[in-house]
């Protein structure tokens, strides 16, 4: 609060000092430990200040600030402007509103209309609003300082986005709006989902601003919500759905480890992954012991597998030329392999994973499920396929797995097909670049020694595993296709 107060008070002192003209005493209602008031009294030394808050708060406040009231009420808060387009500072107000919903009993940020209501109901006859160079200032030129301010607020309330999206998935907001068939009014959405309308309105306002839903006129007086390509990706079971992946990464099991990231980075830190610190077991032991988590993990792997497989089929179908049998090493529930076999029906597939995973994998025509340990031995096939497997392990472990793959494929015409991220640190204008780096950070948090790799790092592990040549084909996905030959 003190950090935020310093920034805002500075903005008031610079942006509208006249607000204190004629004010000799000022009471700061809910003034906390008095940071704002002490800065104001320093800037306007004729003001006598009264810092007013709950007794246990003022008990620990420094004793310097001493204000009092005289005739006007000065409120420093966000003023939401719902219809203003492409307003980055305004969006921060909406994030703050999400935080109010999560952290307070009944708190909220308010629009001008809502401020007008509470002020008039409190007996104030007139009021005016002065934007300052803080969250309320919508007209400010975007320069580096402002960009820094926007980014900082995004770090402060960044979780509001994932929380709102999780809420949209869990409550089925995305499904109900998609199935409605025309713009859906808030009242009907609230009834259909049995939600409290004003809170639902606030969540929807936030998501409309973030581009998840569109707001469209129904008639002269009413607007309704419609789906977008983005909201369709949040529908469970949808063609390009990432819903399960979002639910996985926003689950307490996967969020808690992030608190140990700094400990992980320290030279003196131990070798236990943040996941294990938070959950008592490493990812794979935890997955084996918790069937619900296992199902969510494999459903979310299925989500992103569908996208990567589609991108491979569209972007590089030649990778399967001459491949009559394919072993998917660490193939999980078999989603990827079943899609490949459907697209290239001449391929005989072997879905290979640890026994407790293949035991619950779907049974498909043309696919044999085989349980085992990829560090020990891998079933023979023309080609070995690995997607999102090698990034779970360090170089030494990858080399062991790749050597086993090499043993499983024919020396003359065999190959290993890897679908993984290839980091390109300096590439400009790469829209998925940030996602790849985030995934690398996630590997540091969730796995023991996993990581995403640059081209040079891939070259190292492939050559050390005995592959003489390899090529990389970018596809329309976070991953690329790497083909490596003995
Ligand atoms: C991140 S998941 C990827 C699943 C799938 N390839 C995909 O992209 O959707 C990694 C897979 O490796 C499997 N795995 C882990 N250790 C293994 C081992 N020793 N032998 C075989 N599979 C293993 C896990 O069970 C899991 O299904």
From TrEMBL:
PROSITE patterns: SAM_OMT_II
Keywords: Methyltransferase, S-adenosyl-L-methionine, Transferase
Residue intervals passing through the bilayer: none
Gene Ontology terms for molecular function: O-methyltransferase activity; protein dimerization activity
Domain O-methyltransferase C-terminal, residue spans: 5-64, 258-467
Start and end residues of each O-methyltransferase dimerisation domain: 153-236
The organism's place on the tree of life at top rank: Eukaryota
InterPro entries given in the database record: COMT-like (IPR016461), COMT_C (IPR001077), COMT_dimerisation (IPR012967), SAM-dependent_MTases_sf (IPR029063), WH-like_DNA-bd_sf (IPR036388), WH_DNA-bd_sf (IPR036390)
GO biological process: methylation
Cross-referenced Gene3D superfamilies: Vaccinia Virus protein VP39 (3.40.50.150), Winged helix-like DNA-binding domain superfamily/Winged helix DNA-binding domain (1.10.10.10)
Family affiliation: Belongs to the class I-like SAM-binding methyltransferase superfamily. Cation-independent O-methyltransferase family.
Record-given protein name: Uncharacterized protein
Classification lineage: Eukaryota, Viridiplantae, Streptophyta, Embryophyta, Tracheophyta
